[in-house]
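Posting for a labmate who doesn't have an account.
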Amino acid sequence: MAQLKDDCFAFDGRLISLDAALEKLASRIEPVANIVRLPLREALGHVLAKDIVASRDVPPHHNSAVDGFAVNFDDLSPGDESRLPISGRVAAGHPLDKKVLPGEAVQIFTGAQMPPGVDTVYMEEDCTTHNGYVILPAGLKRGANLRLRGEDVSNGETILIAGKRLRPQELGLVASIGQAEVSAFAPIRAAVFSSGDEVCDPSGDAPDGFIYDANRVAVIAMLQNMGCTVSDLGILPDDEDSITAALCAAEVNHDVLITSGGVSAGEEDHIKAAVERLGEIHFWRLSIKPGRPIALGRVGSAAFVGLPGNPVAAMVTFMVIARPVLQRLGGFQTMQDFRYPVTVGFNYEKKIGRREWIRVKLEHTFEGLTAQKYLSGGSGVLSSMTFADGLVELNESLSSVKKGDTVEFLPFNEVTR
C-alpha cells in the first residue's frame, strides 16, 4: 500500500467550491492501491494501471465484410453489368494460396482474408451465377464491403489509457490484439463504521430511543458497486478510547476508513479527536446542501472519510465528494461524472453561493424528460432516495429555478458504480 500524502486533503480556511476542491484533489492524490497482473476473465471492473499499446493491426489483413464475390474494380464494365469467371473460393481462416488474375472473380465469405488482386466485394444477394460465371450489376464503388487492415487498431497505437475502469468492451479490445492479461489496480480496501450509542444493527432489536443503522448498509453497497473490497466493522460507541482502538486496528490492512456521524463539534462526537490522535483530519468548508462539511484526513497510512450522520446527507456526500476521492485513490484517471440536461417541473428557491442537490424522479413529457421533486427535502428522509432517479444539481450562482428551466441532472447510475 502506498503512503498517503500528509497534506493531500488540507486546504486553507477559505470557503471553497466543490469543483475547485475536486480539481485540487486530482492534482494532489496519487493511487494507493497495489498493481496486480490479471487475466482478462478476472479483470472486469478493475482500473487499468498501465497503458495498453497494440502489438498488431486489427484487423490483421484486408477482409470481406459480407458473403459475396471479390473482384478487381478495374475489371468491371463502366455503367453496365459485368460477367467474370469464378476462379476460387475463400473462407474465413482459409486464405487463398494464389493471386487472383485480372478478369477473374472469387467467391468470398464474411471475415475471409482478401487475396491479392482484388479490392471490391459484391454482396451475394446482388449477384447471379451461371455455368461457373458471376454476373455483377453496375453501380458499386471501388472498395465496397471491404474491411481494411488496421482500420480498428493500428500496430503501435495506444488503445487504452491507464486509469480507465475495464468494461466488457475494453476487455474485448485487449483480447483483439492477442493480449491475455492486463496490469490493473487491486480493489480499494475499505473499512466501514457507523457511530453512536443510539444506533442498532438491523439484525437486532431497537429499544425506545434507538434507531436502526441505515448508513452502514447504504455506504457498503455503494462501495461494492465501485468494486471495492469492503470490511463491515460495525458500530462505534460514543467513547474516544474505543474509537481510537478500532480505527488503529482497521488502519493496518485497509486503504480507507469510512465513518458516518460523530464528526461534528458536539460533546458526544469523539471521532474527530480519535482521528487526530492517530493522524490528522480536515473539515472541508464547502457550502453544500444536503450535508455539512465533510471530514477527510488520514489514520496512519489509510485515508479517512467522515460522512454526515443523516442518511440522505451521508449518501449524497458519498456520491459527490467521497466517491471521487476513492476513485482517485484507486487509480481512476477522472473524478468527474456526466450531467445531463433536463427540464424541471417545479419551482424552487435557494441560497446564492451554495451548491444544492435535489432528489428528483424523471417523467417523460412532450417537452422531453421532466424532473419532479420529492415532497420533502429533509436529510433524514431516506424514502426520498428510493423515489428518485437521481439528483438535480443547482450550482452556486443560482438563486432559484422555475418550471420549464433547464438544469443539470446527475443520475444515480452515474454515481453508484
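Reply:
Got it, the C-alpha cells are right above this. The radius of gyration is 30 Å.
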